[in-house]
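[Meeting: bench + compute handoff]

Bench side (C.D.) handed over the final construct sequence. Compute side (W.E.) agreed to return the predicted structure before the next meeting so the bench team could plan truncations. Sequence as handed over:
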Amino acid sequence: MLVRFKITTALGALLMVGLLAACGSSGDSSSSGGSKSGAPLKVALIPPSSGPLAVFGTDAAKAWDYAAKEVNAKGGVDGHKVVLVKSQTDAQPATTVRAARKAVTQDGAKFIGAVMTSPEHGALDQQLAGMNALNLNALGKDDALTGAQCSPNAFRAVQSNSMDVNAIASEISKLPAKNWAIQAVDYSTGHSAAEKFKAAAEKAGKNVVLESYAPLNTSDFGSYITKLKSADADALFAVEYGADGVAFINQGAQFKLFDKYKTVLGFNMVSEPLFKPLGDKIVGFYNNLGYDVSSSSPLNKAFVDGWKKANGSAPYYVEADNYIAAQMLFEAVKKAKSVDPAKVKAALPGLSFDTIEGKVKVDSDGQLVRPTHIGQVVKKGSGLGWKVVATADGDTIKPKPDPACKTA
């Protein structure tokens, strides 16, 4: 599977467990260096704490916490201590917007991170100007967020669907399959990823013979697997996340669904947290990789070593992408020489800086231009790992800014 499946562990309905807002600095940041100006850099973190995406939410917040501790140990961002305002949500847009308003109006945060889904970002981004706040998106990939739904106060550190699919497109013709089936989550990201994959597949001379969509939080994929087994397809493109992805893979393996395919290509469906629970079921799957943990660049080696020391395991894409989002904010604050959101917003377009993924830059539509990798799940030692089979440069996969995006 060319697409790295983002998977979470908790099944069950996305139930609202309350907005437990707790203002606090990251770890020991309260004792690690003061601010030259006395003004802290306050960032609200609003990840899901329940439902199929909860594990990703925990890991996203963990990355911001790590980045804050790291920079605070050196005196802060240009002298501004980073303070994290931690809230919880149920991944529902209305809940997330309420949490953001509370963090901004009551806790003084002017920057927002760790929001999970594209629908949440779409709702939140339209409220940012009124709140005088900026959103640093490291998880929502829907193209509309830098298109018709874009906001001049929203900036995306993670690759868009188009960027990932464009990276995949160059590899589709090399895969030993002709007829593709698509199984995707039934919300904006699933539909846009499927649409763009279908166009890329047809351009490569492939056929898409089935498109199937399951609601988020689906636990029984029996009817979908039946349709997939009946379709005349020898390859599968799958966009199922978190606990949904785990259920789909486990049930598909039980009914020998994947045995019929020459290629299984996941889109953010499998990732390192799932390697152990899914085991040999996913060996050979391809997936898009937003982050290459094996990169030998000095910045990445330092990040991986530090993360392992702090957390006991290597980082994966959710943690890496949120760390990059934090770095994007920190670099913009340095450039602006201020934590005023208006000045930071002005500093972001055109910003270029070094990251664990190499040199990157922020385009005029708020999208970070960075590479995408294609990986295959392989056996490594006693477990599983990624074999990077291709890397696409950010400048070659990032579409031109959408004219529908009005950032001025």
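W.E. noted at the follow-up: Residues 1-36 have pLDDT under 50 and may be disordered. C.D. will use this when planning the next construct.
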